[in-house]
Amino acid sequence: MLGRQAIAAVVALATAAAGALTPARAAPEPAVIRISAKKFEYTPAKIVLKKGVPVVLELTAIDRIHGFKMPALGIRSDVLPDQTVRVPLTPDKPGTFVFACDVFCGDGHEDMDGTIVVEE
User: Fold this and answer.
1) In what order do the strands lie in the sheet with 31-38?
2) N or C: which end of the chain has fewer CB within 10 A?
């Protein structure tokens, strides 16, 4: 038969073991950056991110179909009116990266661009 001290020791060990099995906290959700597209601009046109920190770009067109192309970071998506397109992004290198509309949207289309600045 176990004495009170032995029972207390077993309970303490079982409690510690149970605590070790407690699931780790889930990683925080990535920040969401909303970008709207309309003739002939993106809003915001400049976004600053940190290298290695995941985000989700939420792209929405206000007036018509646009494109969102950023070759340097391997991103390409159609941006549809009244719909939200979610694009996950974890920048892996610092620098300034241009994004642009690649769906012709009229005179002024060539000026429809923006930048993502990735800092260390």
Assistant:
1) 41-43, 31-38, 55-61, 85-89
2) N
Those residues whose C-beta lies under 8 Å from the C-beta of residue 10, and which sit 6 or more positions away, are: 2
Question: What whole-number distance in Å separates Cα of residue 111 and Cα of residue 39?
Answer: 10
C-beta of residue 99 within 8 angstroms of C-beta of residue 74: no
Q: DSSP string covering 56-105, please?
A: EEEEEESSS-EEEEEGGGTEEEEE-BT--EEEEE---S-EEEEEE--S--
Give all domains of the chain, ordered by start, each with its CATH number: 31-119 (2.60.40.420)
Predicted model pTM: 0.74
3-class secondary structure, 55: strand
Q: What is the mean pLDDT of each run of 10 residues along the chain (120 residues)?
A: 58 54 69 95 97 97 95 94 94 96 85 95
